[in-house]
Design a protein that fits this description.
5 strands, Beta-Lactamase, 346 residues, Arc Repressor Mutant, subunit A, DNA-binding, transcription regulation, transcription
Length: 346
């Protein structure tokens, strides 16, 4: 990700973020750490539980922890919402994506707790083969495991939603502040002060430039997410499918068929269809138009492109079919969606 505006390390004040993160961990009884879009930690671990500290120090077991973190983050990005799951020791963790202007820039990983009500079934992302060595290591940490905080599923779910909205709000405000500062600096460099200049008109001119450049930057951010989408792109847990996903994201202007996707993977369409549905939870005929409608919503929100132009941009056969598909997923026409969105922004 080349644009520094998307680098979490450049967006937030890490010293203040650590204070907030420690407070959130203390209140929620969850261990918390923040990672960038590559999954690399950008913060310290707030209140990491002794059991997890012991597990992560083990060279063998820590590999399973890393796999859980990676898979959890990918699922959160795919769902565009917090993802609650169990690690290889059946400990509950949450991956909370930080997504600004539909651009994934990092995640808050929280958890290291056990559920008080065992009736809730959560997905265990990674499983370990049973071994005597692992059992011995667990017995050595059994007391630490028993001391893990316990919460109800409702408490975990509520906390996940709170962290999702709070962290995205804080980062969004930080981006807005940084954008204003950077645009102001650029304006000053473009228009040096002169003793002969009337400062009142100059101030108005600078303010006008700031507004124009902020609008331009906002448009650029969304266009970047539509044209590039390198981070938000679906990452398949099945490597066989990844060439198809890459092809789909790189050819948004084409009307791509299931056969086209299968060819990218060098497998038969029937086999592709089976493993695609298993991977995404929906068939290709639903996945493809749903994703294109998400891209269409971004264009409707951030550009003045006519509906028929957006239809062409995203490879629909004609504007009528685009409108019909849009209504199927959003229950209103593209024009009405754009009007309602802009009314909400005023």
């Amino acid at each position: 990700m080349s644009n520094p505006l998307f680098n979490l390390e450049n967006i937030i004040d890490l010293e203040k973020w650590h204070v907030l993160q420690d407070s959130l961990a203390l209140v929620t009884k969850m261990a918390i750490i923040t990672v960038n879009y590559k999954g690399i930690p950008v913060s310290k671990h707030s209140y990491c539980q002794p059991f997890c500290q012991g597990v992560r120090k083990d060279d063998v077991l820590s590999q399973y922890c890393q796999k859980c973190d990676a898979r959890g983050g990918l699922e959160a990005v795919r769902l565009n919402s917090p993802y609650i799951y169990q690690c290889h020791f059946n400990i509950v963790d949450i991956a909370i994506p930080i997504i600004i202007d539909n651009q994934y820039i990092g995640a808050v990983m929280a958890g290291q707790i056990r559920l008080r009500d065992s009736g809730q079934q959560l997905e265990q992302l990674v499983s370990r083969p049973p071994s005597a060595d692992t059992e011995n290591k667990f017995k050595a940490l059994e007391a630490e495991y028993a001391s893990l905080p316990t919460l109800s599923y409702e408490e975990v779910s509520t906390t996940a939603d709170m962290l999702f909205h709070l962290c995205n709000y804080v980062v969004g405000e930080a981006i807005s502040k940084n954008t204003t500062i950077q645009m102001y600096k650029k304006t000053l460099l473009r228009e040096p002060a002169s003793p002969a200049i009337d400062f009142a008109p100059a101030s108005n001119q600078v303010y006008g430039h700031l507004q124009a450049m902020q609008s331009e930057l906002s448009h650029t951010l969304v266009e970047h997410s539509i044209k590039e989408l390198s981070v938000m792109q679906f990452r398949s847990s099945n490597p066989l499918l990844q060439p198809a996903f890459d092809y789909f994201y790189q050819h948004k202007h084409k009307n791509i068929t299931l056969n086209d996707m299968a060819k990218q993977c060098h497998i038969s369409p029937s086999y592709f269809s089976r493993i695609f549905t298993k991977e995404t939870g929906e068939n290709f005929s639903t996945f493809a138009p749903r994703l294109k409608i998400e891209w269409a919503k971004q264009l409707l929100e951030t550009t003045d492109q006519p509906v028929n132009q957006i239809s062409d941009t995203l490879g629909f056969c004609d504007a009528g079919y685009f409108i019909k598909t849009f209504k199927k997923f959003e229950h209103l026409t593209p024009a009405v969606y754009r009007t309602m969105y802009r009314d909400r922004q005023q």
